[in-house]
Amino acid sequence: MTIDIETYSSVDLKTAGVHRYVEASDFEILLFAYAWDDGPVTVVDLTDLESLPDDVYDALTAPDIIKTAFNAAFERVCLSKWFHMPMPAEQWRCTAVHALTLGLPGYLEGVAEVLKLEAQKDAKGKALIKYFSVPCKTTKTNGGRTRNYPHHAPDKWEDYKAYNRQDVVVEREIRKKLERFPVPTNEWRLWALDQRINDRGVRLDPVLVRQAITCDEQYEARLLQEARDITGLDNPNSLQQLKSWLADRGLETPDGLAKEHMPVLLDAAPDDETRRVLELRQEMAKTSVDKYNAMTRTICADDRARGLLQFCGANRTWRWAGRLIQVQNLPQNKIEGLALARETLRSGDFEMLELMFGAPPFVLSQLIRTAFIPSPGCRFIVSDFSAIEARVIAWLADEHWVLDVFRGHGKIYEATAANIFKVPFETIVKGHENYKYRASGKVTVLACGYQGGPNAMAAMDTKKEVDPDEYPKLVKQWRSANPNIVKLWYATEKAAVTAVREKTTVKLKHGVQYRYEQGVLFADLPSGRSLAYVNPRIKPDPKFDKDGLVFDGMDQVKKKWMSHRTYGGRLVENLVQAIARDCLAESMMRLDKNYYDIVMHVHDEVVLEVPIGSGSLERVTEIMGQLIYWAPGLPLQAAGFECDFYQKD
Questions:
Q1: At what angle do helices 206-231 and 338-347 cross, to 10 degrees?
Q2: Looking at the DSSP assignment, which residues form a beta bridge with residue 44?
Q3: Dihedral sign (CA 132, 136, 141, 143)
Q4: Alpha carbons 522 and 576: distance in angstroms, whole number
Q5: Residue 542: its pLDDT value, please?
Q6: CATH fold for the domain made of 2-183
Q7: Which entry of 23, 142, 508, 565 is 20 to 30 Å from 65 by CA?
Q8: Strands (E), 1-154
C-alpha cells in the first residue's frame, strides 16, 4: 500500500523534526492518500469527518502488508501518533532511502526529474503546504486568524487534495522504476534498526542547555556594551557603522572584517582602543550556540531528541548523515575538569565558569557533547573502531606490513614513521629524539591513503607539526612504503573505466567488482550491496592528459544534481568508507541482538544506553571486534569507555 499524508502542526518540521512536530497539541492529519498496488489513488479528507476504510485501517498494522512512502519515517511517526498505535518499521519501505542507495536525490521532486518520469510532483505544492499546513500570519484581511482551514479557500483545498493524490502517483512510479535495482534484504533490516534508534532518541540535559544559552546571551551583551562604550556607536555589530568608525581612526578595511582578515587588521591597529574593538568583534563572532538552540527546538516532552540520523545520508557511500542537532560534527572536548565545568554551568555561576575555564564561547563549545545524558539508572557505554579506514584500505590492497601492525601493537602512526624514516620502531616513544617523527607518520597516514599529495598533507596537518617543505618528500616516501595501496588506486580506476567503456564487469579483490548495468556503474562490495554511479561516461581529463570517469550525482555542499569527475584515489575512498560503514552496520546489528540499546552513533562510534549493573564495556568491544564473515582477514579492534554524560575520551 502506497501512502502519502498532509498534516498540520504549529511546530516547524524542518528545524524541530517529526517527533517534536507530532507532539504539538494542534497536530493533526488532514489528508490521507493511498493506493493498493497498481490500483487507483484514493484521498481521504480527515477534516471533513471522513474516516479510513476498515481494510486500510487494518492494513496499517498488518505485518503481511508492506506500507511504502517517500520519506516513510514521516508517515510512520505521524500515523503512529494520530491513531495511537505502533508502526513497526519492519512493515514499511522508504522510497527515499531506495533512491539514496542509487545515488539519486533524497527529495521526491528531484528523483522524478532525474528519472524523467511522466508523472511529476505538483509544482503548486509548496504554496499549498504553506497555506494549509503551517501557521499563518495574522492580518486584518484574514480576520486575525493564525491558521487557514479548508473553508477559508475551498478551491485551494481541492488543489491540495489533488496534490496529495499526485504525490502517491509519483512515489509509486519512482518505486516501480527503482525495483529493477532492489535494496538488499539485510539493508532493510538495518533501516528498521535505524528507525528504532531514531524513535528511541537520546536524552538531553535541559538545564544545561538553557544555562548555556543564557550564559552566551549575557556574555554577548557584555561584549556589545563594551564596544558601545568605546566607539559610541548605536550598533557596533553593524559592519557599515564599524567600518566607518575604524576609518575615522585611520584603519581602512576595504576587504571587510572577516576572521581571515583580523590578524592583519590587529597588527595595523593604530591604538589600544581600536585594537580592543577589533578583539571584541572577533570574540562576538565566536559566540555561537547554534547546537544548543537546535537542542531546544528538537527536545521532546520526555527530554529526548529524536530523528538525529539519516540512513544513507551520504549517498555515495551509504554512511549516515546528521540531522537537526548534527551530531556528526560535534566539537571535541579537551578541557580538564569537564564534570566540574558542566556542573558550574548548570548552577548558573557564569562568572566562576569564566574564571576557572576561560571565555564562555570556548567553554560552551567544549560542553556541547555533555548535554547528551543517559536515562536515570543508566550509563553510556561509548565504543568506536580503532583506525578503521587505515585497516580497511590495507586489507583491500593486501598491504601486509600494515595488516601485521594492526594484528599486533596497532600503532600505525609510529610504524609508518619508522618505515618512512628508517628508524627503529621502538625508538618512536615520548622522551626519545625519534618521537619527533610520529607527527609525520600520523599526517601521512591520514593524508595519503586516497592518493593525496602535498595539499592533502597541509589539510591534515592541523597542528602544523610538519615542515611544509617536507610534504612532497613525505608523500613520495609514504607511497614507496605502501606500494600495494598505490597499485590499488590505479587498478580501481582502470576497472571502473573499463567497466563503463566496455559495458562489462571487472573484478578486483576481496569481493569488489565494477559492473555496468542499464546506465549505472555499480561498485559491488564484499557485504553484498553496491555503490551506484549514475550515467557514467568516459571523458578526456585535460588536467592529466588521459581519459577519466565522469558521472552524475548530488553535490553534498551545493545540494544540486550535477556532473562529477572522479579518479582512482577517490573511488578507493568511496570503497573504504563504504566497507567501514558496513563494519559499523554489522556491529550495530550484533549489539542490538545482544540487547544493547543504541541511542546514537557518530562516524565509527556507537553510544549505548545501558542500565547500571548490566552489560559491560568489555562485552561491547568484544562484539565490535568480532570477525565479519564477508571480510576474512580484516583485523577489527574497538576501544571505549563508560561515562555519565557523552564526551570524547
A1: 80
A2: 32
A3: positive
A4: 15
A5: 83
A6: Nucleotidyltransferase; domain 5 (3.30.420)
A7: 23
A8: 2-8, 28-35, 42-45, 67-69, 92-94
Q: Which three cell numbers stand for residue 368?
A: 556541547
C-alpha cell recorded at residue 74? 514521516
Sorted by where each begins, the domain ranges of the chain are 2-183, 205-298+331-367, 400-481
Q: In the beta sheet, which residues pair with residue 549?
A: 538, 566
What is the per-residue pLDDT for 284?
81
Q: Which long-range contacts (CB under 8 A, 24 or more apart) does 193-197 make?
A: 193/588, 193/589, 193/592, 193/598, 194/89, 194/309, 194/311, 194/320, 195/73, 195/76, 195/89, 195/92, 195/311, 196/89, 196/592, 197/309, 197/598, 197/599, 197/600, 197/601
Instruction: Give the closest residue to 494 by CA, choosing from 450, 549, 552, 573.
Output: 549
CA atoms of 629 and 102, how far apart (whole Å): 25
User: What residue type is assigned to position 298 of the chain?
Assistant: T
What would the pLDDT profile of 78-137 be if each residue is shown by its tens digit?
999 999 999 999 999 999 999 999 999 999 999 999 998 877 777 788 999 999 999 998
The three-state DSSP-derived secondary structure of 590-604 is HHHHCCCEEEEEECC
Q: pLDDT (tens digit, 9 = 90+) per residue, 419-472? A: 999 999 999 999 999 999 999 999 999 999 999 999 999 999 988 999 999 999
Cβ–Cβ under 8 Å, residues 417 and 437: yes
Q: What residues contact 355, with CB distance under 8 A and at least 6 apart?
A: none
* Selection from 5, 152, 206, 26 nearest residue 87 by Cα: 5
Q: Grid coordinates representing 579? A: 566497507
Residue whose entry in the numeric block shows the C-alpha cell 580506476: 493
Whether the per-residue pLDDT at 7 is higher than 90: the answer is yes
**Number of other CB atoms surrounding residue 15 within 10 Å:** 13
Question: Is residue 294 within 8 Å of 302, Cβ to Cβ?
Answer: no
Q: Assess contact for 393 and 572: CB atoms under 8 A.
A: yes
Cβ-based neighbour number of residue 333 at 10 Å: 18
Q: What is the pLDDT of residues 273-310, one digit of tens each?
A: 989 988 888 888 776 799 999 999 999 999 999 999 99
For residue 555, count other CB atoms closer than 10 A to its CB. Answer: 11
Name residue, grid cell 533524497. Answer: 106
Sign of CA dihedral 556, 560, 566, 572: positive
Percent of the chain residues past pLDDT 70, beyond the cut = 99
Q: Looking at the DSSP assignment, which residues form a beta bridge with residue 174? A: none
Is the pTM of the predicted complex or chain greater than 0.70? Answer: yes
**395 within 8 A of 627, measured Cβ to Cβ:** no
Distance separating alpha carbons of residues 61 and 587, to the nearest angstrom: 29
Alpha-carbon distance 551 to 533, whole Å?
Answer: 6
Residue type at 508 in one-letter notation = L
Contacts of 125 (CB under 8 A, 6+ apart): 163, 167
The DSSP letter of residue 298 is H
Q: Residue 288: what residue type?
A: S
**Hey, how many other C-beta atoms are within 10 angstroms of the C-beta on 156?**
17
